[in-house]
Write a structure and sequence with these properties.
- With 681 residues, the protein is mostly helical.
- Among the domains are: 149 residues, no CATH class; 148 residues, Orthogonal Bundle (Tetracycline Repressor, domain 2), CATH 1.10.357.30; 94 residues, Up-down Bundle (Methane Monooxygenase Hydroxylase, Chain G, domain 1).
- It has a two-stranded antiparallel sheet.
- α10 runs parallel beside α12 and α16 packs parallel to α19.
- InterPro entries: EXOC6/Sec15, EXOC6/Sec15_C, EXOC6/Sec15_C_dom1, EXOC6_Sec15_N, EXOC6PINT-1/Sec15/Tip20_C_dom2.
- One of its GO terms (biological process) is Golgi to plasma membrane transport.
- This is EXC6B protein.
- It comes from Thalassarche chlororhynchos.
Length: 681
């Protein structure tokens, strides 16, 4: 800048030119000094260029050859590269398929199980699929679809299993009748077996009881896995050695749906929902079962069907109790049983009250006992049923009394009221076998001969024994003591004697058309029946094994019954005689104004005395035991005679004192006196 700004520009240029010329001279010197070396180097360089060209040509040629030779290798290497890539892809695909195939197989298996309705295994498969397999391949689209379907599949399994449960509930409702019938048959067989064992103690160790068999079966069931597809939890309650197999509840109903449904709901975490639903439905069914048909009382089959359904219901519940853990518990079953017991007893009280046939009441009692024994075998308390049977026993006694009232009426109406004639020893022994009668004098008499009593005596006696047998039948299997049975029989027999038989005898005695001969025969008959009461006492003692001396033993009132009947017959005799006397006296036709008396007693009075003479001859010629009948008939005859004479004298006096008789003559009085003297004579 100083050069350009100053005025020495020319000078500077001159100096610079001089400087350049100096440098050129130095360069030229240096070049001259090194020129030969430079020439040599150029020469060498030219040689190198030629060699380099040759080398280039060789390299180019070699390269061409290498390129030509390497094309196949490059192609092979490309193919190898592609193959290696495919191999890696295949390996990766195999690895992924190895993970996916089990998922698809499990899903296919799940669908197959769903299709074949094996829902519990399907649920287990679903669980494995969800927790084990799907997490490994969760990033695939099809797996996401499966994951989305799992809740739907679970719901579907729930619905289908619930549908199976509903079918099961419907099935057991239909089969309750048959299940109960078979259970009661089993109880009957067990009772028969117990009776045989009790009669032959030496074979008592041979067979298990029903509950023991049930208990052992329960243990077996609890030790088996509920996961088995065909498991139905069946209890085998039958003894395989028995000649005749009675099918159990499990043979009539397949319990597997309820087990499967229970397991499925347990796995799904909804066990409580299932339990509540099952119990609610069974309670509804229990109420339906406990509702008796309106015409149940008409036939025994009506009661049997009612009992079968109840037994069937509780056999199923007992089976469920012992083959599932917690689906039903003892408290739930006890609650159901309490309800069933109260409703059953109320229904039986109502319907049995309509029954008037003693044989039907007896059959009903046997059915109730079998019903009670069956349920007692399953562990249900049945004391209330036996208490109710004691109530039905009173009703049974009433129906028996009504029936025997008709029997006694028929016997008394068909009797001929004349001593039984016997023509040979066989007939004599037959009657003595029917009625306890011993008379040494009668035995000595030759045939033909007559018993003092008429046919109604042995018939009535035998019917009283039949009544006692009928009472005894009801007491069987009621678990009563001998004393209770004895007391029951004696009380019922007393009612038969004091009420039924007494009324029948009184009705016969009070009949309008009964004759004196029949009344006398009734007196004789009741005397013999009165004497037979001690034999009835012995008869009851023999069948109950309770001695009459035992404290609280009820005595038979037969003696009183027959005494009352005899007194009524005697009174009827006196009344009849007086009525006959009145009838004769109505024929009296005194002429109170007659001037002269007749030569003999009045005709009506002669006829009356003839009638009385023949009547008293009936008393004096009574057959049989002299000591008994002579005394008895003599007493009756004396009393009758006194009564007749007193009535006749009173009536004759009334004839004189009648208001219509205003005056009378001495002749009429003398005629009247003749009649009185005839009476005295």
């Amino acid at each position: 800048r100083s050069v350009y700004d100053g005025e020495e520009h020319g000078r500077f240029m001159e100096k610079l030119e001089a400087r350049i010329r100096n440098h050129d001279r130095e360069i030229e010197k240096m070049c001259n000094f090194h020129y030969q070396g430079f020439v040599d180097s150029i020469t060498e360089l030219l040689k190198v260029r030629g060699e380099a060209q040759k080398l280039k040509n060789q390299v180019t040629d070699t390269n061409r050859k290498l390129q030509n030779e390497g094309k196949e290798l490059i192609i092979a290497m490309e193919e190898l590269k592609q193959c290696r890539l495919q191999q890696r892809n295949i390996s990766a695909t195999v690895d992924k398929l190895t993970l996916c195939l089990p998922v698809l197989e499990m899903y296919s298996k799940l669908r197959e199980q769903m299709k074949s309705k094996r829902h519990y295994p399907a649920l287990k498969t679903l669980e494995h699929l969800e927790h084990t397999y799907l997490p490994q391949v969760s990033h695939y689209r099809f797996c996401k679809i499966m994951v989305d379907n799992i809740p739907k599949l679970r719901e579907e399994i729930k619905e289908v299993s619930m549908s199976d449960l509903k079918d099961f509930l419907e099935s057991i409702r239909k089969h309750s009748d048959k299940i109960g019938e078979t259970a009661m048959k089993q109880a009957q067989q067990q009772r028969n077996l117990d009776n045989i064992v009790s009669q032959h103690p030496r074979i008592s160790g041979g067979k298990k009881s029903k509950k023991e068999v049930c208990a052992s079966s329960d243990l077996e069931v609890k030790n088996t896995s509920p996961m088995s597809e065909q498991d139905s939890g069946i209890l085998d309650v039958e003894d395989e050695d028995e000649d005749e197999e009675v099918p159990g509840a499990q043979d009539l109903v397949d319990f597997s749906p309820v087990y499967r449904c229970l397991h499925i709901y347990s796995v799904l975490g909804a066990r409580e929902t299932f339990e509540n639903y099952y119990r609610k439905q069974r309670r509804k069914q229990a109420r339906l079962v406990l509702q008796p048909p309106s015409n149940m009382h008409e036939t025994l089959d009506g009661y049997r069907k009612y009992f079968n359904q109840i037994v069937g219901f509780f056999v199923v519940e007992d089976h469920i109790l012992h083959t599932t853990q917690g689906l039903v518990n003892r408290a739930y079953i006890d609650e159901l049983w309490e309800m069933a017991l109260s409703k059953t007893i109320a229904a039986l009280r109502t319907h049995s009250s309509y029954c008037s046939d003693p044989s039907l009441v007896l059959d009903l009692k046997n059915l109730i006992v079998l019903f009670a024994d069956t349920l007692q075998g399953y562990g249900f308390p049945v004391n209330q049923l036996f208490d109710m049977l004691l109530e039905i026993q009173d009703q049974y006694s009433e129906t028996l009394l009504k029936k025997w009232s008709g029997v006694f009426r028929n016997i008394l109406d068909s009797d001929n009221y004349s001593p039984i004639p016997v023509t040979n020893e066989e007939v004599y022994k037959k009657i003595v076998g029917q009625f306890p009668f011993q008379d040494a004098e009668l035995e000595k008499q030759p045939f033909p001969k007559k018993f003092p009593f008429s046919e109604f005596v042995p018939k009535v006696y035998n019917q009283i024994k039949e009544f006692i047998y009928a009472c005894l039948k009801f007491s069987e299997d009621l678990h009563l003591s001998s004393t209770e049975v004895d007391d029951m029989i004696r009380k019922s027999t007393n009612l038969l004697l004091t009420r039924t038989l007494s009324n029948c005898l009184q009705n016969v005695i009070k009949r309008k058309n009964i004759g004196l001969t029949e009344l006398v025969q009734i007196i004789i008959n009741t005397t013999h029946l009165e004497k037979s009461c001690k034999f009835l006492e012995e008869f009851i003692t023999n069948i109950t094994n309770v001695l009459p001396e035992t404290v609280h033993t009820t005595k038979l009132y037969g003696t009183t019954t027959f005494k009352d009947a005899r007194h009524a017959a005697e009174e009827e005799i006196y009344t009849n005689l007086n009525q006959k006397i009145d009838q004769f006296l109505q024929l009296a036709d005194y002429d109170w104004m007659a001037m002269e008396p007749g030569s003999k007693a009045s005709d009506y009075l002669v006829d009356l005395i003839g009638f009385l003479r023949s009547t008293f001859a009936v008393f004096t010629h009574l057959p049989g035991d002299v000591d008994v009948h002579s005394t008895m008939s003599g007493k009756v005859a004396q009393t009758a005679c006194m009564s007749a004479c007193k009535h006749l004298s009173t009536s004759l006096m009334q004839l004189l004192l009648e208001a219509e008789v205003r005056q009378l003559t001495l002749g009429a009085l003398q005629q009247f006196n003749l009649d009185v003297e005839e009476c005295e004579r």
